[in-house]
Design a protein that fits this description.
The protein has twelve helices and twelve strands. It is an alpha/beta fold and 373 residues long. The protein has two domains: 187 residues, 3-Layer(aba) Sandwich (Rossmann fold); 163 residues, Glycogen Phosphorylase B (Rossmann fold, 3-Layer(aba) Sandwich), CATH 3.40.50.2000. The strands form two sheets. Strands 3-2-1-4-5-6 form a six-stranded parallel beta sheet, with helices on both faces. Strands 9-8-7-10-11-12 form a six-stranded parallel beta sheet, with helices on both faces. Helix 2 links the parallel strand 1 and strand 2. It is globular, with a radius of gyration of 22 Å.
């Protein structure tokens, strides 16, 4: 009964949105292709190669990118001539989030005329489906999601679906899913090399600093400060270099500063970039980057910079590991409870916290040596 009410609620809300505001509709704009990628920054980086490949099949004026505010600077930097429509990355509750979204954006979405819509966020949601239904493309291309999901009240219109991959040895599943969907959209086989992310807007210059980006999208995925600093200490004993930390605005840096002080590491430079380009240049000017699975890790890999990245098991192999070359190493601690969707059954995420600091230091040494060859 609850599931039926959900379906009816979404269908009714979408019907009302598609009937409202006809007198205030903006001029109609036609695109041959719209790419729907509402997501976080790291996920947007993973889609960059696929987006560029799709844009390259048409004149840029014929393509619309629908992206989130946090990913907007990436796409504006890498694809400055392509039109962008910026919408919220996610929409949570039916009331008030979904209804407020329809109230604010339905008229604008209905003013678009789109031949083909390609969705590069593979986890389905009524939010994404509603956007597609309001745009009313002649055809859609998306993944057929094969993992657990919540109940849905809406679906994509006129959709061709490709199965989301179960396994892929050489790259993460998201990249393989992008390759499949892009192949479906262009009507032919697409090589993995054609959808690999690559940053072209900033030159990747070698620097002298070790840049530590300790944050991830959630605390459970972050390596403990004391262990992180121990890894730094072991590494710096053999290869001294300036240490810089990069954190997001508003971050409490106290735990890392305390751990650094207890280890006697006082000469640390701190960066709190507020603009995407500041972060990108900081990464480009580093000699080596240490980070958990996060946006900086994906940006570094897309720039083919030296990096060591710490990967937990919550979504292991879905968003990482992947590499541009041997200059990137992903470290993990395998457990039988992998693929838990970060619903950890332990007192702490052992898949992250039991990565030995000595292994991290050794990987950093290895990458520095490889970069010097």
């Amino acid at each position: 009964m609850i599931a039926t009410l959900r379906v009816w609620s979404y269908q009714l809300a979408l019907l009302m949105a598609s009937m409202a505001g006809s007198s205030a509709r903006p001029p109609r704009r036609h695109y041959r292709l719209a790419i729907l990628k509402l997501d976080r920054l790291g996920d947007a980086v993973l889609s960059l190669g696929a987006v560029k490949h799709l844009v390259g099949t048409l004149a840029e004026a014929d393509v619309l990118l629908i992206v989130s505010p946090i990913a907007e600077p990436l796409f504006r930097t890498e694809l400055p001539k392509t039109d962008l429509l910026v919408l919220p990355a996610f929409c949570g509750r039916f009331w008030p989030d979904f209804l407020l979204f329809l109230w604010r954006h339905a008229v604008q979405l209905r003013s678009l005329s789109v031949d083909s819509l390609v969705c590069l966020r593979h986890q389905p949601s009524d939010y994404l489906h509603a956007i597609a239904r309001l745009i009313r493309p002649q055809s859609c291309h998306a993944s057929a999601w094969n993992k657990p999901r919540g109940s849905l009240g809406l679906t994509f219109p006129a959709v061709t679906q490709t199965p989301y991959p179960l396994t892929r040895d050489d790259v993460c599943l998201e990249l393989e899913a992008h390759r499949r969907v892009v192949g479906s959209a262009v009507g032919g086989e697409v090589k993995m090399t054609e959808v690999m992310p690559a940053i072209s807007s900033v030159s990747s210059r070698g620097g002298d600093m070790l840049l530590v980006c300790p944050q991830a999208g959630s605390k459970i995925r972050e390596y403990p400060p004391a262990l992180l600093v121990e890894a730094l200490r072991l590494f710096l004993e053999k290869r001294p270099m300036p240490v810089h930390f990069c954190v997001a605005p508003g971050t409490d840096t106290g735990p890392w500063r305390l751990a650094l002080a207890e280890a006697g590491l006082y000469s640390v430079t701190w960066h709190i970039p507020t603009l995407f380009m500041d972060l990108l240049r900081l990464l480009a000017n580093s000699r080596l980057v240490l980070a958990p699975e996060s946006a900086p890790a994906h940006l570094v890999t897309a720039m083919n910079k030296p990096g060591v990245f710490l990967l937990g098991g919550g979504h292991y192999d879905m968003f990482a590991p992947w590499r541009s070359s041997a200059l990137q190493i992903w470290l993990n601690h395998p457990l039988r409870c992998y693929q838990c969707d970060w619903n950890c059954i332990h007192s702490e995420p052992f898949c992250v916290t039991q990565i030995p600091p000595a292994a991290i230091a050794a990987a950093m040494q290895k990458i520095c040596s490889a970069a010097e060859v």
